[in-house]
């Protein structure tokens, strides 16, 4: 006769590996199904968001053109900065002998203006030199004076490129052209 399988303390049979293996397989399958479901849901949500972002981008194009024509920064693309070589000029002598050393960059609407600006650079540097040397030390010593100087340089550079100067209601120059601003990175008066 055949021997009966050995019984454990609880009276169960020892080889219950099939039951445990089945349980482990079910748990692994459930985890895989949950992960796949989460990935599908994520892809569907991401696909919906991409379509939502495309619609405002289509509406933003006319707004971007309006922003560009009014002299402000077009937020749909980053600005381009074109460095200028350092300027060292003697200031007007009405207040003694002083000189001014300025390092600046021009913020332009897009990178396609770089070759044009380089072609006009001798005239641009000439105009900036004349403008800087016409100032008194007291005129450029204050923050307001430096901001006014920056606006005047921006206007002069755009004028050199063929854009007529535009003034606001207060009579201050408003950027009108490819150069949106002239930013000082170093400003020393001695």
TrEMBL record:
<keyword id="KW-1003">Cell membrane</keyword>
<dbReference type="GO" id="GO:0009425">
    <property type="term" value="C:bacterial-type flagellum basal body"/>
</dbReference>
<feature type="transmembrane region" description="Helical">
    <location>
        <begin position="21"/>
        <end position="45"/>
    </location>
</feature>
<dbReference type="InterPro" id="IPR005503">
    <property type="entry name" value="FliL"/>
</dbReference>
<keyword id="KW-0812">Transmembrane</keyword>
<keyword id="KW-0282">Flagellum</keyword>
<dbReference type="GO" id="GO:0006935">
    <property type="term" value="P:chemotaxis"/>
</dbReference>
<dbReference type="GO" id="GO:0071978">
    <property type="term" value="P:bacterial-type flagellum-dependent swarming motility"/>
</dbReference>
<comment type="similarity">
    <text>Belongs to the FliL family.</text>
</comment>
<keyword id="KW-0283">Flagellar rotation</keyword>
<keyword id="KW-0966">Cell projection</keyword>
<comment type="function">
    <text>Controls the rotational direction of flagella during chemotaxis.</text>
</comment>
<keyword id="KW-0997">Cell inner membrane</keyword>
<dbReference type="Pfam" id="PF03748">
    <property type="entry name" value="FliL"/>
</dbReference>
<keyword id="KW-0969">Cilium</keyword>
<keyword id="KW-1133">Transmembrane helix</keyword>
<dbReference type="GO" id="GO:0005886">
    <property type="term" value="C:plasma membrane"/>
</dbReference>
<protein>
    <recommendedName>
        <fullName>Flagellar protein FliL</fullName>
    </recommendedName>
</protein>
<keyword id="KW-0472">Membrane</keyword>
<keyword id="KW-0145">Chemotaxis</keyword>
């Amino acid at each position: 006769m055949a021997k009966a399988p050995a019984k454990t303390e609880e009276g169960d049979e020892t080889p219950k590996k099939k039951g445990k293996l089945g349980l482990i397989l079910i748990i692994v399958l459930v985890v895989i199904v949950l992960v796949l479901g989460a990935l599908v849901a994520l892809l569907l949500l991401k696909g919906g968001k991409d379509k939502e972002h495309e619609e405002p981008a289509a509406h933003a194009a006319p707004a971007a053109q309006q922003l560009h024509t009014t002299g402000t920064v077009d937020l749909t693309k980053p600005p381009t900065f074109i460095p200028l070589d350092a300027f060292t000029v003697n200031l007007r002598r009405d207040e003694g002998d002083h000189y001014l050393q300025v390092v600046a960059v021009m913020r332009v609407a897009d990178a396609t203006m770089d070759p044009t600006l380089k072609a006009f650079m001798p005239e641009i540097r000439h105009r900036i030199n004349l403008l800087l040397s016409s100032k008194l030390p007291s005129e450029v010593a204050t923050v307001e004076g430096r901001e006014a100087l920056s606006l005047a340089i921006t206007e002069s550079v755009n004028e050199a490129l063929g854009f007529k100067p535009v003034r606001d209601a207060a009579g201050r120059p408003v950027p009108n052209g490819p150069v949106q601003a002239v930013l000082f990175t170093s400003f020393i008066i001695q």
